[in-house]
Amino acid sequence: MANVTFVSDLPPLPAYEVRPLPDLFPWISDFWLSLLLPHVAYWVVSMFFHIIDIYDLFPQYRLHTPEEITQRNLAGRWEVARDVLIEQCIQIASSAVLSLTESRQMTGMEDYEVAVWARRIRLAQRALPSLLGLLGLNAVAISKSLAASYPVLAGVLAGGHYPFLTTELDAGTVVPSFAAWELAVAKFIYWILIPGFQLWFAACVLDAWQYFWHRAMHLNKWMYTRWHARHHRLYVPYAYGALYNHPVEGFVLDTLGAGIAYKAALLTPRLGMIFFAGSMLKTVDDHCGYALPFDPLQRITSNNAAYHDIHHQSWGIKTNFSQPFFTIWDRWLGTRYEGDVKLRYAREREKAAAKAAAKAAAAANGKKVVVESESESESSMGETAATAKKTANGKVKAK
């Protein structure tokens, strides 16, 4: 399809021809890339943190000790990996359905759209002389005085009047053209500002969706015990346990929430790849168990691994519901944890170390060891996961 638009006192808009956008890579279609990219990113980053964890490369930045992982968590690593893979299969199937609802992304009109924004910038300049007049400044006189030395600035002050900027069409007709700065600003708006706003809006929608569903799953005993309690079997989160959820919870919170955000923000399939992969990376990072000073994802917002880890503790489980990007809903609705955490974390480390030592001593003596784990309940509701072990005093017993 071709289109030519011409207005005599404004630069003409270029012709364009729409065609299907080629795949990003020749060896995989955008369809399959959109399905697999978030999950490849999930495991690549998870394995990065897993290697750090296994070899204890940055112990000074750990939120929990290795003993806490083995003594406090109620789910084994293989069980976690299995459930994560199940959820990822559900997400891939859901993403395929979502992709089929989208028409193929087209290209060819980008220069035209940039020119449209450049025109809007040119038209906006027409208000400048009047605005300067309100301040007692004569824009026309100032423009004339600057015309010889700074012609572009003079054109701006004159209300977007650039008589020296022209171009010749194929037919020999001379028409106005855009200033370089107008095109630069238009490109920034089209390529950076608008997509950035769309991604930000999608993040806001996802945050709102997850906050209220997440909080509801803590307030409603039925939803907590049947769905959400599984995720809280990890008192000490680690990276690849980020998607360790009941399939229903995973679909409602993560899959459906991300799909709604994608549609609400009017994201293109390419922007959708960025959004879905970025959301996945943020979720992994929030469960990584490390407060790394060089981790950019933990510097973008205050909702990071340290913030979300509080929610996984028995004493913070009623707070810090916001995820995965911002903390605004916790702040607005008074669910942000405000107490001191250093002493609480120190006590948990001491308990885990004592349990590990007692277990090792009992094993050395050939005695059977039973490690009694923390309750998975939220004290105000008595919410206890069916799979959690109930204990009398949380100590290690040797028999």
Automatic annotation (TrEMBL):
Pfam families: FA_hydroxylase (PF04116). It is found in: Membrane. Residues 366-399 are annotated as: Disordered. InterPro entries: Fatty_acid_hydroxylase (IPR006694), Sterol_Desaturase_Related (IPR050307). The keyword Membrane applies. The chain crosses the membrane at residues 31-52, 127-147, 188-213. Keywords: Membrane, Transmembrane, Transmembrane helix. This is Fatty acid hydroxylase domain-containing protein. Its main location: membrane. One of its GO terms (cellular component) is membrane. Residues 378-399 have a biased composition (Low complexity). Residues 201-335 form the Fatty acid hydroxylase domain.
